[in-house]
Specification:
By secondary structure, the protein is mainly alpha-helical. The chain has one domain. It is built from five helices and no strands. Helix 1 packs antiparallel against helix 5 and helix 4 packs antiparallel against helix 5. It is elongated and about 40 Å long.
Length: 115
C-alpha cells in the first residue's frame, strides 16, 4: 500500500496536467494581479493546477485535525501568492515551494500512513 500512494499521486498529477487548460480557479473572474498573471502565463497556470491537485490529494489522506492545519497553511500561502502581484518569478517560486510542501505531505503519508 505504501508504494500505491506515490504512484496514485503521480498518476493523478499526470492526468490532470495533460488535460488542464485553465488554472484551478475561474480565469474569467480573475481580479487580482496574481490571478491575472497566472491566467496569462501557461507555466504558472500549469503550476497552479498541479498545486491544486496536490492539495486535493493531501486533504484526502489526512485526518480531520491535520486537514484543518493544511487548510490554514493554504490560506497563508494564498496571501503570500497575492503579495507577489504580477511578479512571475515570485509566483513561480511560491508555487514551487507550495508544491514541494504538499509533496512532503504525500510522502509522509506514504511512509507513515493513516493505514
Amino acid at each position: 500500500m505504501r508504494t500505491a500512494v506515490p504512484a496514485l499521486a503521480a498518476l493523478m498529477i499526470g492526468l490532470c496536467g495533460a488535460s488542464a487548460q485553465a488554472a484551478s480557479f475561474n480565469c474569467s473572474r480573475a481580479k487580482t494581479l496574481d490571478e491575472k498573471t497566472i491566467c496569462a502565463d501557461r507555466a504558472l497556470n500549469d503550476q497552479d493546477v498541479r498545486m491544486a491537485v496536490m492539495l486535493d490529494i493531501s486533504r484526502h489522506f489526512l485526518a480531520m485535525g491535520r486537514r484543518g492545519q493544511l487548510d490554514d497553511e493554504q490560506i497563508d500561502w494564498l496571501r503570500g501568492r497575492k503579495a507577489c502581484g504580477a511578479n512571475k518569478q515570485c509566483l513561480a517560486a511560491a508555487y514551487a515551494h507550495r508544491i514541494d510542501r504538499l509533496q512532503g505531505v504525500v510522502d509522509e503519508v506514504a511512509h507513515h500512513g493513516p493505514f
